[in-house]
Amino acid sequence: MICDICHKNKATIIYTEVINGEKTQRCFCDECAALMNSKAPGKQSKSDLPMGSILSGILSSYMERYIESRTPNKHDEAVCPTCGMKFSTFMKERLLGCPDCYGAFSMVIEKQLKAVQPGTVHAGKIPENAMIYNTTATESTLSALNAATDAPVRGGKKKASAGKTGKKAGLASDEASLRRQLEDAVRKEDYMLAAKLRDKIKELKNEKKDN
Amino acid sequence: MKKKITKWYMEKRDHDDVIVSCRVRLARNLSGYNFGRMLSDSEAQKLVDNVRLFKKEIEGRENKPYYSCDVSKLSPREKEVLLETHAISPDLYSKEQATGLILSEDESVSIMINGRDHIRIAAITAGSNMKKVAALANRVDDMLDASFKYAYSDKYGYLTSSLADVGTGLKASYMLFLPAITSSGRLGSLETELARFGIMIKGVHGDGNKSPGYLHRLCNRRTIGLSESEIFESLELVVSQIADLEKKQRREWYERNRSEIEDKVFRSYGVLKYARSLDLKDAMTLLAQIELGRFLGIIEPADVNFDIERLMLEIQPAILCTNAVTDDREISTDKLRAAYIRKKLPKIKTEKED
Ligand SMILES: [Zn+2]
Ligand SMILES: [Zn+2]
Question: Which residues contact B97 (CB under 8 A, 6 or more apart)?
């Protein structure tokens, strides 16, 4: 089944709505569901979205479970190194814990800002004496990416065996260039590609260990 | 705060038929402290103590006395008064942790400490003068910038605890009196239209679109990707259009329902003048009718300086009880309110006779 919104990705959430006794089924992919959910609290007009607030409520509780399920072990969850804010808490409460959270959760922040703001880069006043924080992707951003896109079922095993059959021929093979591609993918918010690249880097590391 | 000082809302203003007040708010956070969600109680107290020291600094620079306190240590009544005069935000009012306030004598400038952000600078003025409050808030911001280390990033600008404020940290808002637009039922479509420009409008002193005083707050939703002046310009443009529409609709509405509106206005005056008990909602609705009647030329208060918006503020429960001079401890707020309005409501100069 294909997603009702983007007509591109495979639908993973199926929602049955009953309006005036008529049953309609809606299907969404993970990405579209997450995007709708991030838009829901601030939306102005209910008619703008294909569904009402009831669904967004259901989606938000779904998203909580989704995030939890995608965070197999509590200690694997992305956490801000400075204040200890958890990625799942940030997603739930939409509040940051400290200035460093911006760097730690930067890829999600970018997406959330894009949904409601005209831009994602500051264009206003510049202070004289401020402490300047680095808010671009950091190591913890990549682990947040892990938490958000790694399903526990498709762990490293299957991929690793696929890798060993030699199918990776033709793909960039050195780690440095993969990392560059990964950074680029994160910047462009292509998280599907980013997840693939990250898996490849892992694979490469495992292979090195094996040899 | 005990002396008689002219507060911003008591100042004589150029009467504006639509714009009641203008307010600018800047959200700022300091490096070295976690944001509110992750701030410990002891760090919160440290933050409040530290920022409150700024009182001396600003008094020296502005050459004016400022008032400062730990809001969390005030009595509920004192906090309510600050909330009703807009000196503190609901965030600060309801927070259990240490919170602080630095307030100018006329209450037009307030620096809130440890609300949703470490620091929130707010400047407010009666009537229409957004440029004045913007400059005022900016000046206070510069002084704070010189005294503390703000958390800032080249990409995201001023870092705030919520993504709804990040970038400029600026929320500029207008309080608007919109009886005709509200009564015509067009507020909903206006709201939808404004949302497309990243502008929010909502009723005050009431829930949703049902504002008893026809008072609505309009403010920018967008904070990043635009400069401060772009935000101010877009708001100004929208507000001037709304004001024109409101005034045009008031006249058209009056043309169509002349006798009905006149009856309503005089009836409202009668109730305000003679009622012995008035709840807040009724009083606000009735005062709004007087304001509308004045705009349409139906009634003319004998006192040209009579300020309905100020009266609307003074009849809020906590302000009312604080200002009330009475020996009767059992008297209800609604009775106090009716008595206060009776005293303040001016005579009508001309009454049109049919
Ligand atoms: Zn989709
Ligand atoms: Zn943090």
Answer: B36, B39, B41, B44, B72, B114
Please give the ipTM for the structure prediction.
0.82
- Please give the Cα distance from B46 to A90 (Å, whole number): 25
Is the Cβ pair A95, B162 closer than 8 Å?
Answer: yes
Q: Is B26 helix (H, G, I), strand (E, B) or coil?
A: strand
- Which residue is closest to B226 within chain A, CA to CA? A123
**Dihedral Cα B346, B347, B348, B353, nearest 10 deg:** 160
Q: Which of A81-90, A143-152, A170-179 has the highest mean pLDDT?
A: A81-90
Separation of alpha carbons A88 and A79, rounded Å: 9
The confidence score (pLDDT) of residue A35 equals 62
- Secondary structure element (H or E) that encloses residue A198, with its range: helix A191-210
Chain A hits for B168, CB-CB cut-off 8 Å, are 122, 124-125
C-alpha angle B189/B190/B192, rounded to 5°? 65
* A102 chain-B contacts, CB cut-off 8 A: 153, 156, 159
Cα separation, B209 vs B198, whole angstroms: 18
| Segment B224-269, tens digit of pLDDT | 999 999 999 999 999 999 999 999 999 999 999 999 999 999 999 9
Of B218, B124, B130, nearest to B174 by C-alpha is B218
Which contiguous run of DSSP H or E holds residue A122?
A: none
Distance from CA of A16 to the nearest CA of B (A): 28
- Out of A91-105, B133-147, B159-173, B304-318, least confident range: B304-318
Flag whether residue A136 sits within 8 Å of chain B, measured between CB atoms. Answer: yes
* DSSP character string of B33-56: S--GGG--HHHHHHHHHHHHTHHH
Name the pTM for this structure.
0.72
**Which whole number is the average pLDDT over B160-173?**
96
Please give the mean pLDDT across all residues of chain B. Answer: 89
Q: Kindly give the distance from the C-alpha atom of residue A82 to the centroid of ligand 2, in angstroms, as a whole number.
A: 5
Ligand 1 is an ion; its neighbours by CB within 5 Å are A 3, 5-6, 9, 29, 32
Residue A26 Cα to ligand 1 midpoint, Å, equals: 11
Distance separating alpha carbons of residues B185 and B196, to the nearest angstrom: 19
Tens digits of per-residue pLDDT, A29-51? 777 666 655 444 443 333 444 44
User: Which residue reads 């003068």 in tokens?
Assistant: B129
Give the mean pLDDT of B57-84. Answer: 92
CA Rg value for chain A: 19
Of B320 and B66, the one with more pLDDT:
B66
Q: Identity (one letter) of the amino acid at B126?
A: A
Phi, psi of A43 (to 5 degrees): -70, 145
- Hey, which residues 153-182 in chain A have their CB within 8 Å of chain B? none
Closest of B234, B230, B239 to residue B21, by C-alpha: B239
